[in-house]
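request received
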Amino acid sequence: MGFDIELYLSTRKKIIDKKLSELILVSAESMSRLKESMRYSILAGGKRLRPILCLAAGEFVGGTIEKILPISCAIEMIHTYSLIHDDLPSMDDDSMRRGMPTNHSVFGEAVAILAGDALLTDAFLMVASEGISNGLSPSLVVEVIRDISKAAGSQGMVMGQALDLALEGKEEVTLELIEEMHSLKTGALIQASVVSGARIGGATDSQLSQLRQYARFLGLSFQIIDDVLDIEGGSEIGKARGADARRKKATYPTLVGIKKAKETAQKLTEEAIFALKDFDEKAEPLRQLAYYLGARKY
Amino acid sequence: MGFDIELYLSTRKKIIDKKLSELILVSAESMSRLKESMRYSILAGGKRLRPILCLAAGEFVGGTIEKILPISCAIEMIHTYSLIHDDLPSMDDDSMRRGMPTNHSVFGEAVAILAGDALLTDAFLMVASEGISNGLSPSLVVEVIRDISKAAGSQGMVMGQALDLALEGKEEVTLELIEEMHSLKTGALIQASVVSGARIGGATDSQLSQLRQYARFLGLSFQIIDDVLDIEGGSEIGKARGADARRKKATYPTLVGIKKAKETAQKLTEEAIFALKDFDEKAEPLRQLAYYLGARKY
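response:
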């Protein structure tokens, strides 16, 4: 087919990393510890899944990387803030992330909380200011801010994390509850990444709704695989495996078994790809991304 | 003069409290603890200084309460999130705020952090969605989001809090450093309140720049008075006095003495009012607000 997903991912990642690195410059002033801390986590070597999906969806419908890049990086800033806060001692209490000490392990809790707060706030500043200076229409910028803030706040990601914490150690956690938690905690922002990229690229309503479906299935599959990796381990996760078990956290694989969980993830990947059935070969990166994510090292 | 500042403030406060109360409804679902926590702090009886200033500036230049209210409430949500996070054990470690137990004392650290995160994120959702449904132009909404996020993030409030923490226990803290910290930590968002209200009300550039001056002096005066109240006590602060001293925090009054600090606050109040010298009697609420804040119980 001639489409090299590994090359595609590494090229995209490089573009995104460069932009993110330019965004948060550490100045020589006395108050640079906050910025150092923001920079530490934003450049800690993430997969850049969300901005890559944002770019891929936007390019598919005809947008350019230049126009979509600031918004895709803003989403990565929001994702990064959520990781910093999730890792805090009062939350998941993780000391390692992506093979590196977590933000609060290096900078202390106070600075870590503030770095998360600043990344979240600055993400909206970036969409508002770079969106306009990049030639997006104000109404498009407002729509994107609405999509992203809805996905990230009390109707999305933050509620998902609250639910996740509430389920810890609980008996009688149902599959439905876990799915709801996943769709809030990771699904909503993954969907917003695809939708906002597509909006900027000029997607039609019909394209938007098909891409939304794609993102929904992909997000669910992604989270199940994450939970399987937590049990089976894998070089990718960069933190000690078994974290969920230690925390007595019910997950998809602990409820249905690893075999069934893998089958479900596989089925969801196929559904994600099926959602793109009306699209031509220009949707190949989106399809390959779903395959690639579905085949992460078990 | 016939202008009753106490009545003005209580009427405005009622309008703002009602709107804020409608915004965060606690549902009966299993995941309502996050929303309870958000609601607890947002309705904990703040002075509503920022939204009142936002409304006053906007009405002065000809705007209506209806149009400005959602944005003024979004700013109060951002202010409230900052208080929740500032009170955390790893930050200022305060157990009381406005005469009530702080958020984390009631809901625990994890939920308190998430409630702050959600209030911050939902504030942008509110500006984006209610701004548009309220008939503001998309470009005005984007400008307001830019003003607010710039004032709240790593170039404003969050940096101010980081600097405040960094100065704790430090020798050789200069007056300049304290002023810079104040202008970031509280000044920036107070200024954004006035500027965004004025923008929505349709201010001219010249009006905007005079109002920006007014807000700058008012913010500086406000913070010095806060620091004086922390030493001398007062029913208004609703927390134990002497918190700064216990934390070995250099403040304006500890550096220059209480008498000089009060004189400076008084002078700044006069400068704030002088900034409005070209405005007619319609600016009376803004002037009275400055007097009122300048005369808080020492």
